[in-house]
Give the backbone structure.
Amino acid sequence: MTTQSRFSQLFIRILVTNIVNVILLGAALFLLSNIDRLAGEVAETRSLVLASQQSSEAAVLTADLERNSQKINELNSAFLDDSGLVIFEAALSELRASAVVESYSYISTQPTPDTTKSRGLPILVKATGDITTINNAVQKIFQLPAIIRPVTVKLTKEESSYKLEYGIFVYVK
């Protein structure tokens, strides 16, 4: 290879490199001049995507609430209000009158919060009899029109029968 051909090959390489550099410089300047606009478009698209996700999540939650509204209303009605407490007291008195339970007493007349921060009345129910009678008493207590949570159970055997002291928590509004 002659010097002339080497020079011409080198010249062509330099020329191609400079052309590529000019093209890359032009592309970089184009991107730099449009970067604010592109960033704005990206931000707008991202906010639209987030908004659509949130609205779809809200729609799902609304559908769940509507689907479960009957259960929610049923549970809310099981929490006793003033008239519900009167009905509950009458039912408990009826159990005492029919000798299903021996006695009951309110530990507190004011609603107190439990560990879940729900309010209720703690009640101590006493029953005496054989195991079948005690079991029937507990079943009748749980059939009362309220949400009842057992708190304490004390069962002692006496001479010919059993004595139950049953602490319950009745949830109120």
About this structure: DSSP finds four helices and five strands in the chain. The longest helix spans residues 3-67. The helical segments are 3-67, 69-78, 82-97, 131-142.
